Amino acid sequence: MFAFKVIVMKVFTSDKIRQIDAYTIEHEPIASIDLMERAACRLFEWIVKNYTKEKRFIVFAGPGNNGGDGVAIARMLALEGFDVDLYVLSASEYSDDLRINIQRINSQGIVSPVFIDGNSQLPEIQCNNIVIDALFGSGLTRPLSGVAASLVEQINASNAQVIAIDIPSGLFGEQNPYPNSSAIVRASYTLTLQFPKVCFFLPENEQFLGDWHVVDINLHKQILEELETPYRFVDAEFARSLIKKRSKFSHKGTFGHALVVAGSYGMMGAAVLTTKACLRAGVGLVTSHIPKIGYQILQCSVPEAIADIDQNDFFFTGIDEFNKFSAVALGPGMGQHSQTVKAIRELIPRIKSPLIIDADGLNILASNPNFLSILPKGTILTPHIGEFNRLFGRQNNSNERMLIATQMASLYGIVIIIKGAHSQVICPNGTVLFNSSGNPGMATGGSGDVLTGIIVSLLAQCYSSTDASVLGVYIHGLAGDLALQQSSEHSLIASDIIEHIGKAFASLMH
Q: Minimal CA–CA distance to 437: which of 425, 422, 458, 452?
């Protein structure tokens, strides 16, 4: 079971967002138009904090409440003295709140909305303009077409900076099954209301979102706390809440003994990185089971580790005693020799300690899918997208991949970490946690080995599989962020991440 020690930021689907809005209107209580005004005020505050009056703003509003936000923002900008043009898409129906905001801006008398009902009325957009996209919100159910699609294509072709309100128009809140990306706004910034949308965490949508920022509009706290959602966003506060306090009288036995089964001829670096990261993450003892060829490498590189030597010179063929270990990591640099596969098949059912499998361990599982059914409950798998596809089949998009991972985690009682930007920790109970730390510089060889070392260290220290995964992923990303302060995205290497694990823990705990 995954017990939340603090209220981590929830991420809701589009239908539940509508439910939250309705609950807030009924129970605050607040009129719908006043809630819109509050949201527009918060959005306006962000804009005026980040832009000067030298720029010309072009606001595009759609027929729904997203458009109502845009019209309200246009009114506030005009009152503040900004140069603003407002365009509204013509439609057979408009939301009530949009109508009210059009009346308000007309009464103001500074900006008059221009209604667009054909391609000939599309305005010219200069590259030095600031476009505010308030055309369509997260509840969109079909791809844009007609004048709306033409307008989006013109916005994208202008090379102007674009601020999307809540979500770039044309993008769906969750799954985006349609391939026509030309009819989706490519924002420079996305100002999302109250919480990020599920689609923000999926790699194919990066091109549309730009830098996104959460704007708190004070939706009703009770519904936010009580309404169930499988999605969470892990921030520093939540990661901090998971860290166990150490007793003054602790000793190395208190913090567990991890076993790392890793390395093969030409791949001993993976064993070294995993072992070092394991130690840096606080384990009491770590034993690395390695082929004979790696003995001197490990002893010289990681003198704090215990070396356990395989009978084979070059790859893993088995280990006799492993029940004394608090947690086990299998796979980094291990290779996929037939004797290694046979040894893994014999080893897995005998493991009683918490287990994490990465790299070649995952490739062996993919080649022998029957092994999945013998994994101990709570086993952690850490695939990148390619490894995931080999394990569970290629999916059409990231949302489908996430849904398949949720099914597999539940079916086998395991935790699956899909590595990448906003790595997804997928729990057996269906919870999906998106990570907030990390940077593109971590896309380098050995980074995954470091993550495995951190997580097995936490498992050995008696963190649950879910807590070890969530905290391990966050610490890994945070260490990468701290390393980046002294390096660059182009030059970051896995060893840099290891050297900043201690600072990552320290920054969370102070």
A: 422
pTM, two decimal places? 0.95
Task: For residue 425, list its beta bridge partners.
Answer: 417, 433
At CA 433, angle to CA 431 and CA 435, rounded to 5?
A: 175
The answer to whether 8 touches 235, Cβ cutoff 8 Å, is yes
pLDDT beyond 80 at 329: yes
CB 416 within 8 Å of CB 409: yes
CA distances, 260 to each of 273, 305, 494 (Å): 11, 10, 18
**CA 275 to CA 285: how far, in whole Å?**
10
Rounded distance, CA 385 to CA 394, Å? 9
Residue 492: CB partners within 8 Å, gap ≥ 6? Answer: 439, 441, 442, 444, 480, 483, 484
Residue 55 structure tokens: 């720029």
CB-CB contact of 199 with 173 (8 Å): yes
Mean pLDDT score, 474-499: 98
Nearest one of 348, 507, 358, 355 to 437, comparing CA atoms: 507
Query: What count of residues does the chain have?
Result: 510
Backbone φ and ψ of 384, nearest 5°: -80, 180
Residue type, 107: S
Torsion, Cα 72 78 84 90, to 10 degrees, reads 30
Answer whether residue 426 shows pLDDT above 90. Answer: yes
3-state secondary structure of 116: strand
Alpha helix (H) residue ranges in 172-229: 206-209, 221-226
Please give the DSSP secondary-structure letter assigned to residue 292.
G
Residue bearing tokens 């090379």: 159
The predicted-structure confidence for 390-415, as pLDDT tens digits, reads as follows 999 999 889 999 999 999 999 999 99
pLDDT digits (tens, 9 = 90+) for 197-212: 999 999 999 999 999 9
pLDDT of residue 81: 97
When pLDDT is cut at 50, 70 and 90, the band that residue 179 belongs to is low
DSSP state letter for 165: E
For residue 2, name the pLDDT band (cuts at 50, 70, 90).
very low
> Are the C-beta atoms of 161 and 190 separated by less than 8 Å?
no
pLDDT at 170 over 80: yes
Q: 93 — phi, psi (to 5°)?
A: -135, 145
Q: What is the pLDDT of residue 128?
A: 97
Q: How far apart are CA 249 and CA 263, in angstroms?
A: 35
How many C-alpha atoms does 178 have within 13 Å on its Cβ side? 14
User: At residue 220, what are phi and psi to the nearest 5 degrees?
Assistant: -60, 125
d(CA 140, CA 137): 6
Instruction: Please name the amino acid found at residue 276.
Output: K
- CB hemisphere CA count around 483 (13 angstroms): 27
| String of DSSP letters for 228-269 | --SEEEE-HHHHHHHPPPPPTT--GGGG-EEEEE---TT-HH
Does residue 179 or residue 87 have the better pLDDT?
Answer: 87
